[in-house]
Design brief:
single chain; alpha/beta; six-stranded mixed sheet; two-stranded antiparallel sheet; 14 helices; 8 strands; about 50% helix
């Protein structure tokens, strides 16, 4: 019997499959944010002949970034990027982003998408079409994407929102499946050039690099990204038993020990329970002798002895 998770994934895949079969591909659009960091972790550069490549500390800071909201369509189209500066007034657009025309520039207090910035971008998407036929947008469940304000704005604009199941954007979001990796590889290449020349990348530089990478992106790559998300093979393959927590930013940012603890807690939470509401995983833990914190730390290392399990 299929699990609720499998049914949710199958329904989403079938929804997108029907769109690709019957809707105008230019009207099937995926939008998502990505962060452009001014420094990359442990980046390597090539030195002169006779020297090895080395890791260069570049002062990585998660807050030192620019947010770019990107959009691609199933016909291979790329739409203008919305760059989001961090600040409380529109002045930060010029000081942080500079001239990004014909791309879009806006700002928010934390530098991420908000209901207002999403509203602005939905209006931009609508402006690409002269008729009132329905537009389909595929997106994840980030709070500003699924807020009541966003849903009402989308409906008013004739846009239907298709939400990707929680925890599976890396498998079912076209931008995550192929595109962002290509873009960031190009930016990393340019950043190495900056480091070799002793330069420091500014936010304006980051915007220019993002635009250059976006312009180099081939339409066939975009089309392939949409085609890949309707393949059920990856759902039926090794990722079938993955836990949703393993596809979150928090998981990937955590140390191996914490990842193991997150997986264990998720297993306990999802485990079948007896008539008293006790999870079967808990019985397994108790079989080690006791269930106090010290014992569970030992069990985590015992069951998951490898750093990259």
């Amino acid at each position: 019997r299929p699990s609720t998770k499998e049914i949710c994934i199958d329904n989403f895949i079938e929804d997108i499959r029907q769109l690709l079969e019957h809707a105008d591909h230019s009207r099937i659009i995926n939008i998502d944010e990505t962060a452009i960091f001014l420094g990359q972790k442990n980046i390597k550069i090539w030195h002169s002949k006779g020297q090895d490549d080395v890791s260069v500390p570049v002062g990585f800071n998660e807050k030192n970034r620019i947010t770019a909201l990107c959009a691609i369509s199933a016909d291979g189209g790329k739409h203008n990027i919305q760059f989001i500066a961090k600040g409380n007034t529109s002045q930060v657009i010029n000081t942080q982003l500079g001239d990004v025309y014909p791309h879009l520039a806006t700002f928010s207090e934390n530098g991420w998408s908000t209901n207002l910035t999403i509203y602005e971008y939905l209006n931009y998407i609508k402006s690409l079409f002269e008729d009132d036929d329905e537009i389909h947008i595929i997106l994840d469940i980030y709070s500003a994407h699924r807020s009541l304000e966003t849903k009402e704005a989308a409906e008013a604009l004739g846009i239907k929102l298709h939400f990707i199941p929680a925890g599976y954007t890396d498998m079912y979001q076209p931008l995550d499946v192929k595109i962002f990796a290509i873009i960031k590889a190009y930016i990393k290449h340019i950043l190495r050039t900056y480091l070799r020349e002793g330069k420091q990348m500014t936010k304006k530089d980051a915007c220019r690099m993002m635009i250059a990478a976006w312009e180099k992106l081939e339409p066939t790559r975009v089309q392939e990204a949409f085609e890949e998300i309707i393949s059920k093979e990856k759902w039926k393959g090794v990722n079938l038993h993955d836990l949703p927590i393993m596809h979150t930013c928090k998981y990937f940012r955590s140390r191996p020990e914490e990842q193991k603890r997150m997986v264990l807690n998720e297993l306990i939470d999802q485990s079948n329970r007896d008539k008293n509401g006790i999870s079967l995983i808990s019985y397994a833990l108790d079989s080690f002798g006791n269930s106090n914190t010290k014992s569970r730390d030992f069990i985590i290392k015992y069951i998951f002895p490898f750093d990259n399990y």
